[in-house]
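Researcher: Next entry in the queue.
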Amino acid sequence: MNNKLLHNRVFLTISISSFILFLVLVLSNPFYIINEKIKSFIIKTKNEIYLLDNSKIDQLINNDIVVINFDEKSLDKLWFPISRREYKPVIENLNNAWAEVIGFDIIFANNNNLDLKWDDIFAKTIKDAWNIVLWWAIISKTFSWQTLWVIEKPLDKFLTWALAFWYYQPNVDIRSNVVNSFRPSAKVYDVNKVLWNYNHFWIAILKAYYSKIYEKDFINYEKSDNNFYYLRPDYKIPFFLSNASDILINFIPLPNSNENKYSKLPSYSFLDVYENKIDPKVFEWKIVLIWATAKWIKDIFTTPNWIEYGVYVLWNIINTVLTKNYLLYLDKNLELFLIFTLILLSVYFNLSRSGYVLVFSNVSISIIFLVIFPISILVFTSYLLNYLFELFFALILSLTISNIVKYITENKNKNKLNKALSEYVSKAIADEILSNSWKINLDWERKKLAIYFSDIEWFTSISEKFEPEFLVTFLRDYLSEMSDIIMDEKWFINKYEWDAIMWLWWAFTPYDNYSYYSCLSALKQQKRLSELNEIWSKSWFSVIKVRIGLHVWEAIIWNIWSAWRKMEFTALWDSVNLASRLEWVNKFYGTYICVSENVYEEVKDDFEFRYLDKIRVKGKNKPIKIYELLSLKWELDKKRENIRNSFVVAVDLYNNRDFLLAKDKFKELINLWDTASKYYFEMCENYIKNIPSIDWDWVSEMKSK
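Model: Structure for this entry, 705 residues:
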């Protein structure tokens, strides 16, 4: 693979992210059970929170459904299986109470051989009631030649007079063994290879219910599309995903399941209805479900609420439809796109060289994708996430793999660059360079940077006074002290020329504020030099003064070398020459830190400056303004501030050709030991004798260097 691609952050991000998404998809199957448990917990918790608010209970529980349980009390007195003669008074009592629809979870598939006359009586009771919904069972059986669905149905004498018939088989997830959904209708072949279409129980119940309410035939109405099942033409129920055929059940915690926290569900004993002990008003216009819930009758299912009787699964199905609290899955493609976005962002920022960016970005990404997004979806919408655990897993993989790649890449680059960089820069800069190796360019490059020259004033004269050994010791101490300040501010020391130093800032590291740090370093050097002079004064009488020139502009930074023999990294161009000349210009004004107008404009709000002059250096046609750097903002002492203010007035007089008055002002400043005024004083004397021409541009010509 092209080595440049390995150093390309975008390429690395896309490659790593694609690999992580592949791993997530490959491993998503084992996460299925975890996702199902998380989803069940979320649904249950969300509904429990709603049920704690009495004002919201009616939004979750529809009271038009009544359950009649064949419970232990009924079992003790009526026995099981119950004789069909016992159903007659129950049906009559419910109809006398104006029950709208009565559904049985009893198949009535065999004759009552003990008392056949009661079969006829029960059939007549069904006919007279005309609101009974019966059950057809669809059972999978294996034959020698094929596995087919076998249909077990009620006796024809019962089925003939039933209002509707239905099958009851909620979808039991074969992986989690949990009931989560149901299919509104099923198409199956019987043993005679005849295709049958059967409605689910709740479809038959509700179609019968609405047929009686609206006095229209919805029982035989059948319609669905890619997104909805239509209970009636104006009542559509969403499938949990587009192009799916199942509907999710919104399970509500109910009594008689393992947790008896709520008592809103109307539920009565079969025996009490049989003996007509229940207030008829509780059945008026209601859907009544008759079911066996005795403990030894194992009609139970595992649901998100844990273990529940079949009747409560059915109740939850009907309740979901009547309350319209449907659960839907978020579109899988959209969810995968969001997971891939999470991976991309995490990997990209995790490959950053900045620890602050890495921490902030990953915390932000985690909060957005793992907290805000899931909570917003799950709390404020009816959507569920297909890949909830995959979100967490994707982030963990992103952090782990991107860190491994970053570690390998960085170490590879560090091994390559360590030798070269150690010859150029401080450890701090080297660490920053190596932490972002794809940014490094050791070929030529045009870049804006700060250029800094310093030189000891009258060093040739000073050096003549010392023995070579003493001079070397002095230079070692001086250069060490100045270099430490440079490196602390992350400068690149380009070269030493005896006592002179050339520095570059931002040659490698991508930082802003280079003008600020260049000025700060200059002030720190002058301060440290004052401290060193106190020490050196004990060894010799000379006071060391250093002149500094600063300029900010574009330059060419590149390697000059003889292949495999000698290499030097440096900066070239006109801006480098100008910075060097600014250091030299200090001689004319008696100053020690001279900066260009570019530097001044960038940091004038951070430092105190004094305007010196408008000059044209040797070899340059375009004049520039120059300034003396005095101190950090607001740290200029009163004496120097007064001198600066008086100097401004004197320079204004000078520029207005009032040389006599300007000369007097500069004379006063000279008496206050302002060295810059000496230059102007001499220029005033010259212009008094030789008046400048009308087209004088107030530019001072630097004839030397």
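Model: Residues 137 and 152 are 5 Å apart (CA to CA).
Researcher: Noted, moving on.
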